């Protein structure tokens, strides 16, 4: 189960772009808490503490205690150049609120997978996360899927996965695939010809760069 993370926060007296920029200059990150039919609360967090929480790898599927309120992160906006967090949205939840979260998928027992171990197959992952509907008190930190006994051509669907008690997939109208074990990629004659052509071009370019220019020859002769 995901750990509960606590973040200290202060109420924002002013909102708007100018106020937000001033907060960021001071190492703070603007945020808002909303939900449960209450008025949104504008707050700001310490950027260092928020970054530490983000680096856990399971921030988005953890219960976050902010200013004494139980919340679930719904969105984190990052700066397009610096990748620093610039705003966070938190949803108020009760202790046993049913929530929808994206839970990371982890694959185990690769050494016991004949399709990969003996057949040199490749694990083609189509979903790195599974959206689950769970009790807020029982959010899993990850879903582990065993590859034991899997052969080339086998597909792993959500129906093959044992989910934690009380959890159910958010998508219920189809048995969606999560991963497939595919045959190893065998280079074709066309691929090899293309690689040879690229290598020949690169070699010619390198040789041309290494040749001295007329000016360089004159300088050496002088």
Describe it.
- Strand 5 (64-66) and strand 6 form a beta hairpin.
- This protein has helices spanning 17-25, 47-54, 114-117, 189-210, 214-221, and strands at residues 5-7, 9-11, 28-35, 38-46, 64-66, 69-78, 85-92, 98-108, 122-125, 129-135, 143-146, 155-157, 168-169, 177-182.
- The protein is of the alpha+beta class.
- The radius of gyration is 27 Å and the shape is flat.
- The strands form 3 sheets. A 7-stranded mixed β-sheet has the order 1-5-6-7-3-4-2. The chain has a 4-stranded mixed β-sheet with strand order 11-8-10-13, with no helix packed on it.
- Pfam families: Ribosomal_L25p, Ribosomal_TL5_C.
- InterPro entries: Rbsml_bL25/Gln-tRNA_synth_N, Ribosomal_bL25/Gln-tRNA_synth, Ribosomal_bL25_b-dom, Ribosomal_bL25_C, Ribosomal_bL25_long, Ribosomal_L25_dom, Ribosomal_uL5_bac-type.
- Residues 7-90 form the Large ribosomal subunit protein bL25 L25 domain.
- Keywords: Ribonucleoprotein, Ribosomal protein, RNA-binding, rRNA-binding.
What features would you highlight for this structure?
222 residues, seven-stranded mixed sheet, structural constituent of ribosome, 5S rRNA binding, 14 strands, alpha+beta, 36% strand, disordered C terminus
